[in-house]
Amino acid sequence: MAEKAKPARLGIPEIRARKGATPLVCLTAYTASIAALLDPHCDLLLVGDSLGMVLYGEDSTLGVTLEMMIGHGRAVVRATRHACVIVDLPFGSYQESPEQAFRNASRVMIETAASGIKLEGGAVMAPTIRFLVERGIPVCGHIGLMPQAVNTSGGFRVVGRSQDAARQVLADAEAVAAAGAFAVVIEGTAEPVARQATEAVPVPTIGIGASPACDGQILVSDDLLGLFGGFKPRFVRRYAELQTEISRAVAAYAEDVRDRRFPAPEHCFGLPGKS
Ligand code: KIV
Fold this sequence. Notes:
Bound molecules: 3-methyl-2-oxobutanoic acid
Shape: globular
CATH topology: TIM Barrel
Strand content: 5-15%
Radius of gyration: 21 Å
Order of helices and strands: HEHEHHEHEHEHHEHEEHH
Number of domains: 1
Number of helices: 11
Strand order of the largest sheet: 1-2-3-4-5-6-7-8
CATH class: Alpha Beta
Low-confidence stretches: none
Structural class: alpha/beta
C-alpha cells in the first residue's frame, strides 16, 4: 500500500518568507494535548516561558528553568506535525555570554527537536543572536516589553511611549534583524512604534499588545481560551470561556460520584462469559 505523504512542518525559511504577506498565526503551547489542538490552525507555536506563570502559578517568568523548557518543548514538538515550533530560552540561560547561550540553545534544539529558539533583548543581545545564527541555531528576537527584565523595568508596562523609548524599540528591532533573527516578537509596545518597527525590518514582526500592522500575531493560548485567571489584559480577545466550562463539567462529575450515578453499568467490567 502506498504510504500517505506526511504533511511537511513549516520551517524557518517559510516563516521568514511571510514578511508583508498573509499574517502569521502564532500561539503559545506548553502541553501535548493543547498543542495537538492548536497545530492545524497555527503557523508557529511558541513554547513560551510564560508557562511559569500560566502553568506553574508563578508571579513572573524568572523561576523557569532550562529543564522545564526542554520538557515542555519536547512534548509540544511530539504532539505537532504542521506548525513551526520554537522554544524560549529562560532567564539566566543566555545573558552571560554568547557561549553560554550556544550551550543552552543547542541543548534545547537537540533535546526537543524544535526548529528554533526565542530570546529577549534588543541591541544588547545582537552579538549573541549573530553567534547562534552563524552556528546553525535559528533565533527569534523579542523586544518592547520584556518580561524577563521585569525587575529592571519596574513592571509589565507598555513601552515606546516617549520619544527616547520609541527610538530604542526601533534601534532594537533593526539590531536584532541585522544580527540574523528570522523574526522578532514585539510585545507591549505603543501601536505606532510597533508599526514603524515592522516597516523598518526585513523579517516578520510578531505582535502581542503591539499593532495590527505586524506580520503576525501571537497570544498566550490560555488567555484566548479563557483558561487563565480573572484578569484579562487589554490586548487579549477571548474566543472561549473554558474556565466556566471546566467548572461546570467538574461540578457535574462531583455530583454524579456523590449520588452514585457514576460509574454506570456501561463503565464497569463483568466477569469472563458475562457482560
Ligand atoms: O513567553 C511567552 O509566552 C512569550 C509570548 C508572550 C510572546 O514570550
